[in-house]
Amino acid sequence: MQSQETYAIEMQQIVKQFGSIRANDEVNFGAKAGEIHALLGENGAGKSTMMCMLSGVYRPTSGAILLHGESVRIRSPKDAMRLGVGMVFQNFRLVQTLTAAENIVLGERGAFWRGPGWLKRKAEEIEAIAGKFGLPFPVDRPIWQLSVGEQQRVEIVKTLYRGADFIILDEPTSVLTPGEADQLFETLERMKQEGKTVILTTHKLKEVMFAADRISVMRKGKMIATMPKTETSERDLAQLMVGKESAAVTAVQRERRKTGTPLLVVQGLEVMGDHGRRMLKGIDFDIGEGEIVGVAGVSGNGQKELAEVLTGLRPWKQGAVHFNGELLKNGSVLGAIRAGIAHVPENRMRSGLAGSLSSVDNLLLKTYRSAARSRFGLLRTAKNRSWSQGLVEQFDVKQAGLDLPTQFMSGGNQQKLLLAREIDQDPKLMIAVHPTQGLDVGATEGVHRLLEGLRSKGRAVLLVSEDLDEILALADRVLVMYDGRIVGNLPRSEASREDIGLLMAGSREDAG
Fold it and tell me: Which GO terms describe its molecular function (predicted)?
C-alpha cells in the first residue's frame, strides 16, 4: 500500500488484538516532519495503544509502520529509539533515587563505569539540550526531589538526548499546572522549528486548537477523521470524539420519578492527590433520594478522589460532607459503611474482591461482625453458606460452586457478586465507579438493572463513568468534572453528547 501523501512517520491498516478485544481496527495514521499532530479521543479510544506500538511497547497484530516511506519493524523500545522514535508516558519511567542526569544516561554503554568526569561532561551536554528547548531542571538532583513538571522535562530531554526525531507525548498536561502547560507548548513549538515531529495524544480540545497543526480523531478503536486545525472547531471535534446522538430508544426516555430530599450534600470540598497537588478544588453538589447522578469526565480530573473521599478511603482537607442529615466522618471507611454508603470500586479485583477467596468469604467481608453472620466471634458457617447461595441465585451469579476462588469467575459474574454484597446491605447511597468496564452486553444490562432497581426503591446512586452512553442511559442528572472542578450540572433533558464533550474537554463551563 503506497501512501498518497508524504509522511515522516506512517501507520497503515494497524490492527491490535488483546484476546477477543480489538483495541485498534485497521487504523491509518500519518504525521509530517516539523508538525505538531494531535491524536484526540476519549479514554479507551485506542490512541495510546497506537502510540505504544509506534514506540515498541506493543507489537501490531497486523499492519505496517513506515518511516520516511520505508517499512520498519519496531519490536521493542530499543528498536524505536534506534529509529529515532521516543515516547514520554503519562506515568514517568524514572528511577527515583538516581539523579536527573543519571536517569538520562541510564542504559548507555558503560554509563556508570567511566568515572565522575564522564558523568559531569554528560550533565553539561544535558543542560545544553535542556536550555535549547526551554526545559530547565537541576541535573544533579535525585528524581524524588523534583516536581512533577520537572520530572516530565527530564523525560522529554531523555528522548532528545538519545536523538529522537519523532517525539510522542501521552496526555502530557494531565499532571501539569497551567503555567507548566504553557511552558510545555513553547517547548513543542521549538521542537517543531527544529524539524521534529511531535505527536500529542490528548483529550483537551482547547490545548489541541492552541498547539496542533493537524488533528486526528479516534473513537472506539477506529480512526474517524484527520484534518488541519484551520478546518475544524472545538464543537466539531467534540462531536467527532464522542459520536452523534443515538436515535435508539434509551432508558432516559422512561418516566422519571421525582427525586426526594437531598441525601448527600457536599460543600466546598478540597482534596489532595497522591502526588501532593489539589485534585478537588472547592466542589459543591448534592444527590437526592431516588436519583441517579452521573459523573462524566476524562480520567484524572478528580473523579477517583471524589469516590475515595465519599467512601472514607481518602480524607478531605477542607469542606464538609453531610449525609442523611449528619456530618460524615472524615476519612473513615467504617463510618461510611455504617452510614449506609456502598461502594463498587473502579478495579473490582484489586480493591473490591479478594481473588483467592471463595464467594462466601467475599460476601462476608463487610458483614462478618454482625450477629446474623457470627456469634461469640465465630462465623455461623451453615447459615452463611445458605445466605450466600441465596444471594448468588438472586443476583444470577454463574459459577462452578461457592468454594471456587473468585479469580476464576468471569468479569461479569465477579461484578454481580460484588454488587450482591453491596446491595444486600440495603445502602442509602451506592457509589459505582466504572461498574460495567470490561463487561459484555448481557452483563452490562444486568448491572444497569441493579442500579435502576436501587433508584426505584428510593435509594441514591452516584455513577462515575467515562462511558457517555451509560451515563445518558441511566442518569437523571449529569455532573461534568474537569481539572478538579464541577464545570457542568445538567438535568438529563438538557444534556447532549456535544455539550458534555465540550465540558469534559474544558472548552466551556456551565453555570448550572
Answer: ATP binding; ATP hydrolysis activity
Q: How far apart are CA 8 and CA 10, in angstroms?
A: 7
Q: Outline which parts of the chain fall under CATH 3.40.50.300.
A: 9-242, 256-340+427-512
CA distance 108 to 234: 43
Range of weakest confidence among 39-48, 153-162, 393-402:
39-48
- E strand spans, 76-157: 85-88
Q: Which of 175, 462, 463, 474 shows the shortest CA–CA distance to 301?
A: 175
Distances (CA, A) of 272 to 264, 276, 309, 314, 480: 21, 6, 10, 9, 19
pLDDT band at 460 (very low <50, low <70, confident <90, very high): very high
* Region 9-242: CATH code: 3.40.50.300
Q: Does domain 256-340+427-512 have CATH number 3.40.50.10400?
A: no
* pLDDT above 60 for 491: yes
Q: How far apart are CA 378 and CA 362, in angstroms?
A: 17
Residue 142 DSSP code: B
Q: Average the pLDDT over each of 20-24, 29-33, 179-183, 419-423 and give the range with the smallest value.
A: 179-183
- Name the residue with higher pLDDT: 412 or 440: 412
**Contact by Cβ (8 Å): 75, 59:** yes
Grid coordinates of 454: 436501587
